[in-house]
Structure to design on (202 residues):
């Protein structure tokens, strides 16, 4: 928990350096395949500092996240199920399998919009060899919707929302942190229940 909190603080501080945009691209890319911290916290920090460029930051974040998801798909496709079992617990894998059985690639869309760990879905999509063009489409729609929601708010409302975010940025960072941990916890609990049902045959 403390490590994750420190990582969130480390990510946020890039907004106050000349490398903020590059850091946003790198973190959004990495978060889609292996990095634990979502890029939203840096996106918000950059939008606070430069509200007129918020749509640009949202675009950078979206493109990088989709490219990172494509990389995650390739990693899963090349590494196969043994890699998946090495990277993630059986509970998480079971949840993702169930999601894909119900919704196919649109499960990626759900993960892209919510605090669910997106990287589990991108790598799993490659392992299960889901249709790649549809996977990319689901990623583009969900990740763009998520990041442009932030960008549009800053672009439309500028100073008022900037003042609000600046005042409560600490609390909002904590909220993202809680959602991040909560997403992993929900997947774990759901996976344990699914595995128990599978073992009992009910």
């Amino acid at each position: 928990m403390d490590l994750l909190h420190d990582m969130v603080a480390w990510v946020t501080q890039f907004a106050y350096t000349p490398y903020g945009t590059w850091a946003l691209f790198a973190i959004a890319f990495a978060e889609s395949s292996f990095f634990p911290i979502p890029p939203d916290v840096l996106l918000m920090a950059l939008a606070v500092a430069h509200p007129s460029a918020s749509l640009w930051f949202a675009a950078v974040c979206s493109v990088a996240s989709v490219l990172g998801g494509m990389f995650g798909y390739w990693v899963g496709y090349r590494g196969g199920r043994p890699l998946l079992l090495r990277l993630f617990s059986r509970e998480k894998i079971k949840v993702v399998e169930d999601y894909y059985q119900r919704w196919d690639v649109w499960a990626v869309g759900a993960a892209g919009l919510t605090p669910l760990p997106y990287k589990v879905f991108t790598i799993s999509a490659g392992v299960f060899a889901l249709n790649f063009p549809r996977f990319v489409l689901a990623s583009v729609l969900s990740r763009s919707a998520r990041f442009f929601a932030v960008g549009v708010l800053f672009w439309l409302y500028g100073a008022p929302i900037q003042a609000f975010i600046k005042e409560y940025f600490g609390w909002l960072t904590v909220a993202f942190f809680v959602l991040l941990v909560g997403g992993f916890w929900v997947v774990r609990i759901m996976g344990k229940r699914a595995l128990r049902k599978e073992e009992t045959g009910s």
Q: What stands out?
A: Residues 2-200 form one domain.
